[in-house]
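Co-fold these.
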Amino acid sequence: MREEFRADLHIVSQLLVDMAEAIRVAMQNATRALLRADREAAETVIARDAEIDLIYRQVEERVADLLARQAPVATDLRTVITALHIAADLERMGDLAEHVAKTALRRHPSPAVPAELRGVFGQMAAVADRIAEKIAGVLSKPDADLAAELDRDDDAMDDLHRDLFAVLLSDDWPYGMETGIDGALLGRFYERYADHAVNAGRHVVYLITGETAAATTTDTGPVE
Amino acid sequence: MREEFRADLHIVSQLLVDMAEAIRVAMQNATRALLRADREAAETVIARDAEIDLIYRQVEERVADLLARQAPVATDLRTVITALHIAADLERMGDLAEHVAKTALRRHPSPAVPAELRGVFGQMAAVADRIAEKIAGVLSKPDADLAAELDRDDDAMDDLHRDLFAVLLSDDWPYGMETGIDGALLGRFYERYADHAVNAGRHVVYLITGETAAATTTDTGPVE
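Predicted complex below.
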């Protein structure tokens, strides 16, 4: 029974790693679509979101199956429920990458982001990518120190989000309202992507250390 | 055993009704804060979000306890897992009401929403309130027809969201970028509130009819 439980849990973990890798590639492609007005990259993100949703449903089915067959209790039960939380955060990160891609597509062939904002979005994308890499890493090989780094990465994202708003709200912003609003919403998508990653990371830490993870998604952007 | 399961499930359902009522009041107060620059209403929303999060944790604890003691299988198991999804959607709706309240507070004593937008936000708030009322209703007394109405309410919200953007992007928008961006983000908060309600409603329908609910949160605003 115990061995079966471990084997089942390993399959769930592997699905979470697959999801984490998929949402990392999704944001890479979304950023390419955004900064290079790359239509194909945007369409790839949108097409593949269904695959991410499919893995999410597989996690849920595997977990339901595991609960039914193994009836875990105590720590084992909490571990299984925590896996559901991580999957929900990762699924939402995939949606956010899709929002970035759709924004790029709506403006295509014009770039959705003007030259003045390309630097800050490039940096936000770099932080998002680092974060997604760490999530995939800690899910493959639990590491509480690495997971804890996610909080610092999220602070870096919040700083960039603030920089973005400083540009959008400066007196010499040369573009119109639509570009400004797109910039604000895109900033929010990257910032929320990081928030969900931090949340997923806290759940991973909980799995490793047994310390209570935050029950809710923190949402710490300067625009709230 | 069966009776115990029913009794446990009833407690979980009651907690969900409590959450639904709390997130309805939260958005009512957030709207009051927004449209009347009512500082006290905003602070109430922020203070009470912790109570909503607490009920969410109680749902999770009750569910974990129920799984451990009753080890439900098949439909019973799916019912219990669905309750977790509904709770997650409701918790997020509470966060969105809090975002509205915080935006109002940041601009206080100025109104965050200028006169030109008060009409459309009043209508969005009315749809949000109708939606929250229905969620609380179907959770207290399952009714698939009432839950299905949520899709139409969500369409109404999307239409209002489009109207909002038409005002924000019109050539004669007399306000600056900050007010425009606040308007866009506030619109997104109301629209996402409705999306999560629809999602929760689908889960309720699934509980009633056994028909598959959407596994992921639909996010159907015109700005994506």
